[in-house]
Structure formats: structure tokens, C-alpha cells
Amino acid sequence: MADEAKAKGNAAFSAGRFEEAVQHFSDAITLAPSNHVLYSNRSAAHASLHHYAEALDDAKKTVELKPDWAKGYSRLGAAHIGLGNAEDAVSAYQKGLELDPSNEGLKSGLADAKTAAARARPAGASPFGQIFNGPDVWSKLTADPTTRSYLQQPDFVQMMREVQKNPNMINMYLQDPRMMNVLGVLLNVKMRAGGDDMEREMGSSEAEPESTKRAAEPEKKVPEPEPEPEPMEVPEERTAKERKAEAQKEKEKGNAAYKKKDFETAIAHYTKAMEIDDEDISYITNRAAVYLEMGKYDECINDCDKAVERGRELRSDYKMVARALTRKGNALMKLAKTSKDYDLAIEAFQKALTEHRNPDTLKKLNDAEKAKKELEQQEYFDPKIADEEREKGNDFFKQQNYPEAVRHYTEALKRNPKDPRVYSNRAACYTKLGALPEGLKDAEKCIELDPTFTKGYTRKGAIQFFMKEYDKAMLTYQEGLKHDPNNQELTDGIRRCVEQVNKAGRGDLTPEELQERQAKGMQDPEIQGILTDPIMRQVLIDFQENPSAAQNHLKNPQVMNKIQKLVNAGIVQIK
Fold first, then answer.
1. Which of 119, 263, 379, 426 suits 47 as a labelling partner, its CA being 20 to 30 A distant?
2. Would you say 82 and 50 are in contact if contact means Cβ atoms under 8 Å apart?
3. Nearest Cα residue to 435 out of 466, 396, 474
4. Which residues pair with 189 in a beta bridge?
5. Hey, is 139 helix, strand or coil?
6. Which pairs from 431-434 meet CB under 8 Å and 24+ separation?
7. Residue 529 to residues 112, 507, 533, 540, 566, Cα–Cα distance (Å)
């Protein structure tokens, strides 16, 4: 199954459907988590979607599982390039070339990485340039109360984009107070109000050299440093913090009410939290969970859609967006009445998995697909049409048009999969077509559905006879006679099997027949077990070298039974 999912992923990747490829490769990884090739393929798909952080995680897993595989380092280098980590990309490509010096892809990647590294270190470049291309730049700016408000200003976003494209352009914007605040956030420093000096929050300035101290005025008493004033809190920031704290309190009250099954109260608190702070979609998803529990599925779906839309506007954590989509899928599952209704739920779960690969969501997707298939079968069920299709199959069977007969029998089983007669009839068709494994499977299904239906035993026994498994066929016919002792077909089947077994025991088979029989027998696990049994090996040696000892062995019923099986298989011949 992992190979099947991998093949689907490769096909989707080749067709440019990268999100679908990621999904299939993830399914394959769930089934084969130690297969390094699957992580490599998913890394390539993530990179094609510009999801370089995920691509890097998969590339690292690839080289962890298979450190001597050069291609893994190619994936690692590509992910680093996408994240702007040119130096790390150079290192990855070089390590890959150590394993495969002639790999053209690694050589080309190394050249690109070196070029990118050189561009990142031009003469006179700003010392702060590279911090703008880290993987968490935007998340840091969003998390800080001061810089978060800047993200709503188009000119600020444009300024940041230009600096990301060309770090040297930062020199043009250093007079902008917003850029100074951005530097403070990204470098984790406090900006002094009166100038451009910066002081690290967890450290101090470098010590003054000893020579300078000695040159200073002798023994001058150093005054006690005046305490630095507490940084002023901007009124807007204070208001935002208070607003968020108040919203969190409402959320906690809602959670407490939800645990007590006081759903109306929980909804009231979550709604108030949403009104106070519209920048946290967890309030919406929590309210959706309450609606789901109350059976108000339309309201739940409406809230989930709001959470997804607002989450994308705020660039919320992808796990939160995935949670909203999964919750929507759950509500759609509850509303499903027909097989087609499940399509919307399946779509919601699939979208959730593209946001975050959650095992619970994957299970829900599989459950939805299974429920859809079962309901399709129920909707298709029609015994009357099934009988009509069976009769059509019978007519084509009489005309010896066996492929067409199989088609109608198959349609009959779709309409009524519990009719043993159809399995018996289709088994007969497969036998005529030489498709013995398929026929055997249908005959066994027939017996499973109705153990008293003797036709199932005659079909199965005949197929086993044609497969030259005479001892198995004999047991099948004998089992059928228990339900219908006077059945002539079953009796004749036993007679034919006995003739073949006796023929093998007397050594009357031609060399070709004997060789074929022995080869068939050697594939039987039971025969293999007998021949590898040390006691039975000694018994067979005694039959050849010590006849008196062999006679004693025959007094043991278990030994005699095993010898008979070897005779039936043509392995041992009695003359």
C-alpha cells in the first residue's frame, strides 16, 4: 500500500499537482515511516510549493535515515537555498559530493549556493541584512505588540519586502522609526530613545581596556549609576494587552462552562471573547466545537469558515486553520445523508491535511471515504435487478460467452453481494476461462455465505482438481457430502481424486507428470514442514535402508498420515 501511495504521489508531482503529491507521500510515510525515499520525495514537493521549512524537515529526516545517500543532501541544499541559508546549502551540497563526486545535480546546486552566498556577503553590505531573510521574521513581527500594527500599513510591508530582496537597501530606511523598532525585535535588543545606540536585554557593553583605565584620572570615585527608567508603554499597546487579557478570561470561562455541558453559557463567553479580540481564531473554533456538540451543524460550519478566512488574513498558525477545517469536516459528516454528501466532508479533511498532517484528521478522512463507499453500496443494492443480471449471465454462459457472463454476474453481485448462487456461477465461468485463482476465491465465498450450498463444494473441488491439488480437492468433496450425502457430483469428484492419488502412489505417472506433481507439492507449506522435520527425515531414510524399522514407523498413525501426504504429493512412491 505504501508503494501504491508513493506511485500516486509521483504521478501528481509529475503533473504539477504538488499539494496532492504531498498528501500521497504523507500517506505512504504513515505506512512506511522508515523509507528515506518517501521523505525525499515529499521534500521536493514541499519545495515546489515554496514550503521550505517543511522541505527542510523532510530533507533532514532523509539524511538521518540514509546518511550515505547523496540525493538526500541535494534535497537538504535546495531547502536551505529556499530559506536563504546559502552557507548551509553550500555545506549540504559539499557533503553530497563527497559521497558522489560525479553527481551533476549536486555540482550545479553547489555552484548556485556559492553564488547566493557571495551575493549575501557583498562589500559594504549592511551588518543587519541577513536577519531579514530568516524563516521566522514575520512571526516575530506579528508576536510583538509594536510591530504587529505596522503589518496593516502597506508602505511598511513594501519596505520590508524591498529589504528582503536587497539587504543593502536597509540603509535607506534607517531613519524610519519603524525600521529601528523592527531591528530591535529581530535582534532581541532594546532601542534607546535618544540615539542609535543599542543595548542587549541580557548582557552589558564590553569592558573598557586596562590601558585606558590607567590613563584616566587617578582614583576618581565612580558615581553610582542612575537607574534606567522603565520603558514607557504606548497607550495603544497597553490597551491591546488589556484587551487580550480580558478576552482570554472570557475564553477560560467558556471552557469551564463547556466542560460542565452548559453550552449556552459557553457560547456567550466565546462570543464575547471574539468581540473583544478579533485577532485570535481560537475563540471562533471553540464556539464551533460547542455548536458541534449541540448538534447545530450549520452554525458550526459557518464558524469554521469564518475561522479559516480570518486565520488566513492574520497568518495564524497553520495548525489552528487545520483544526477549523477538521471540525468543519466533522459537522459535514453528521449532516451526510447520501453518499454524495460525504464529498464535502472528504474535501474539508483533505484541505485540513494540506495545512497540518494530523494523524487524527487522516483517520477521519479514511472513515469518511469508507462510509461513502458503504453508503454507495447500500444505495446500489437492488435484489430484483440482481436476479435479472444473474439470469442474463446464465444465458451467456449457455452460449459459452463466458466473458460476457462474468460481466453480468459481477453486476448482480454489486446489486446483491450476499447471493451465494452468483458466486458459484461466476466461479464456473472463471474455471472455463482458466482463471483458476479467481474461481477458487468465488467458490470459497459461496461456501462462506451458505455452507449448505453443495454447488460451492463441487466448484471448489473441481478447481482444486484442475490445479492438481488432489488431496485438497478430496477433502472439499468430503466436506460437501456431509451436507448432501447422496450428491453424485461430489461422489464422482472423490473417485477421480482417489484415482489420481493411487496413480501417483503406484508410480504410474510419466516423468513429466511426476516432476510437475513434485514441484507442486514442494510449494505446499505443509509438505515443506514434513520434509524439514528431523523425525520424518529419519523415517524416510529407514524406508530406504532399514525396512524393519520402517514397519515400526507405520504403526504410528501420525507418521502414517504424513507419509500418505507425501505419497499424494508424488514426493514418495510406493511400489
1. 119
2. yes
3. 466
4. 200
5. helix
6. 431/459, 431/462, 431/463, 431/466, 432/400, 432/402, 433/402, 433/403, 433/406
7. 61, 23, 6, 14, 11
Work out the number of other CB atoms within 10 angstroms of the CB of residue 136: 11
Q: CA-based angle 453:455:456, to the nearest 5?
A: 75
Counted residue by residue, the chain has a size of 575
Whether 237 is in a domain gets the answer no
Chain segment 285-309, per-residue pLDDT in tens: 999 999 999 999 999 999 999 999 9
Residue 157: give the domain boundaries.
131-191
For 85-133, the pLDDT digits (tens) are 888 889 999 999 999 888 887 887 888 788 777 766 554 455 555 567 6
How far does Cα 208 stand from its chain's mean position? 59
Predicted local confidence at residue 163, as pLDDT: 78
Bridge partners of 190? Answer: 199
Q: At what angle do helices 383-398 and 420-433 cross, to 10 degrees?
A: 30
Residue 27 resides in a domain: yes
Q: H-helix or E-strand containing 513? A: helix 511-522
Q: All 3 cell numbers of residue 137? A: 521574521
Contact, 308 vs 325, CB < 8 A? Answer: yes
For 533, the 3-state DSSP assignment is coil
Q: How many domains are contained in the chain? A: 5
Nearest to 204 by CA among 228, 231, 185, 232: 228
Strand boundaries in 399-456, DSSP class E: none
From CA 527, how far away is CA 518, in angstroms rounded? 10
CATH for 10: 1.25.40.10
Question: CA-CA distance, 266 to 260, in Å (whole number)?
Answer: 9
Among left, alpha and beta (phi > 0; psi -120 to 50; other), residue 225 is beta
The dihedral sign for the CA sequence 275, 279, 282, 288:
positive
Instruction: Give the Cα separation of 392 and 520 in Å (integer).
Output: 38
- The answer to whether position 50 is within a domain reads yes
CA 538 from centroid of its chain's CA atoms: 52
Determine contact, residues 325/302, Cβ cutoff 8 Å.
no
51 & 97 share domain: yes
In this prediction, residue 424 carries a pLDDT of 96
| Residue 110 domain-assigned (yes or no) | yes
Identify any residues that bridge with 200 across adjacent strands, giving them in sequence order.
Answer: 189
> Among positive and negative, which fits the CA dihedral 404, 408, 414, 418?
negative
The grid cell for 234 is 504606548
Distance CA 535, CA 541 (A): 10
Q: How far apart are CA 136 and CA 132, in angstroms?
A: 9
CA–CA separation, 200 vs 129, rounded Å?
19
Kindly state the cell numbers that stand for 57. Answer: 524537515
Confidence (pTM): 0.41
DSSP element (H, E) containing 191:
strand 189-191
Domain finish residue from 191, 218, 239: 191
